[in-house]
């Protein structure tokens, strides 16, 4: 990975931190996108120390805030002249409906819209760096997902799992649609389910979900194991040229039926474009 620049979102914790560390160990120039400066700096220090690679930068961005994503992209263009690997990893589950500064439902905004905007804003740079790779960290929770175009922001009814599975399905639909739009560009894009992983995930929940997650985490895999497929897709020669797929444990798997619906994927793209007011 020497000579390559890799951007990892949510790189201060869990799967993202392990992914950033692994890429730094391989010699990549790693850029960590984190929303909190203190947590970001602490993780950056650790990653530099453990990898022995000084080329680990920190940039601050809140993926739930579209202005913050635009500012991040503008800054990124000033600082870097290539982007070989983008790992859209940050994500979260929220058992209460939260509204973002843009007036959007938080789960949909930070899991999907922020990464949709980030990727599209950086896409020229990624194309210019081809062969390049984009990895979208989704979840098998998407299997229960459905895109509710009539209530994308869950105004009528909010349920944590419904919002999360919809957002993670959006990650997969975005992956497949982006792949169709990138054909022939030398840029690949794949989605990942990391498994059930013991991280800070869902630590912010207060309902019955929290004790359930806490209990289940005894049986969960480590963040190191959870990051393996992201790292594989970001760096392995075995997946050179492979694109538009959904991976679990380094193997291609079927995603849910709705994820293969090209009409839904195009519609979600158009709606997302309008929502981020881009591009
Ligand atoms: N853990 C699992 O079992 C599991 C299963 C399937 C899929 N996943 C997916 O795996 C990915 C990584 O999650 P994880 O398990 O490693 O959880 P984690 O330890 O909670 O890490 C999530 C990361 O996302 C960052 N983040 C949260 N909100 C953000 C925002 N608005 N802007 C920018 N960054 C933000 C967090 O930053 P802070 O530290 O500042 O909060 C943190 O760095 C997520 O996409 C998740 O949906 C996880």
Can you give a write-up of this model?
The protein is α/β, with parallel strands linked by helices and 279 residues long. The chain has nine helices and eight strands. It has an eight-stranded mixed beta sheet with strand order 3-2-1-4-5-6-7-8, sandwiched between helices. α1 packs parallel to α2. The protein starts with a strand and ends with a helix. The structure holds NADP nicotinamide-adenine-dinucleotide phosphate. NADP nicotinamide-adenine-dinucleotide phosphate (NAP) binds next to α1.
Strands, helices and their partners?
Layout: E1 5-9, H1 14-25, E2 29-34, H2 37-51, E3 56-60, H3 66-79, E4 85-88, H4 106-128, E5 132-137, H5 160-182, E6 187-193, H6 209-216, H7 223-226, H8 228-235, E7 246-248, E8 251-253, H9 262-276
Parallel strand pairs: 1-2, 1-4, 2-3, 4-5, 5-6, 6-7
Antiparallel strand pairs: 7-8
Helix pairs in contact: 1-2, 3-4, 4-5, 4-9, 5-9
């Amino acid at each position: 990975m020497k000579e390559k620049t890799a951007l990892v979102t949510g790189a201060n914790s869990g799967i993202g931190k392990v992914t950033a560390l692994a890429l730094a160990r391989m010699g990549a120039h790693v850029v960590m996108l984190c929303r909190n400066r203190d947590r970001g700096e602490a993780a950056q220090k650790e990653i530099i120390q453990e990898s022995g690679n000084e080329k680990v930068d920190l940039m601050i961005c809140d993926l739930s805030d579209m202005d913050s994503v635009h500012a991040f992209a503008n800054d990124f263009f000033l600082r870097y002249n290539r982007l070989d690997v983008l790992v859209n990893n940050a994500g979260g589950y929220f058992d209460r409906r939260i509204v973002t500064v843009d007036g959007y439902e938080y789960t949909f905004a930070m899991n999907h819209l922020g990464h949709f905007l980030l990727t599209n804003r950086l896409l020229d740079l990624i194309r210019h760096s081809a062969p390049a790779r984009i990895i979208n960290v989704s979840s098998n929770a998407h299997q229960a997902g459905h895109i509710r175009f009539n209530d994308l922001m869950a105004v009528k009814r909010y349920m944590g799992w419904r919002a999360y599975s919809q957002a993670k399905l959006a990650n997969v639909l975005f992956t497949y649609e982006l792949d169709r739009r990138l054909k022939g560009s030398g840029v690949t894009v794949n989605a990942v389910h990391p498994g059930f992983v013991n991280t800070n995930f869902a630590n912010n929940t207060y309902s019955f979900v929290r004790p359930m997650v806490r209990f289940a985490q005894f049986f969960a895999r480590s963040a190191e194991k959870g990051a393996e497929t992201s790292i594989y897709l970001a760096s392995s020669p075995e997946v050179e040229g492979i694109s538009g797929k959904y991976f679990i444990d380094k193997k291609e798997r079927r995603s849910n039926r709705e994820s293969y619906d090209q009409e839904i994927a195009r519609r979600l793209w158009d709606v997302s474009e309008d929502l981020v007011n881009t591009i």
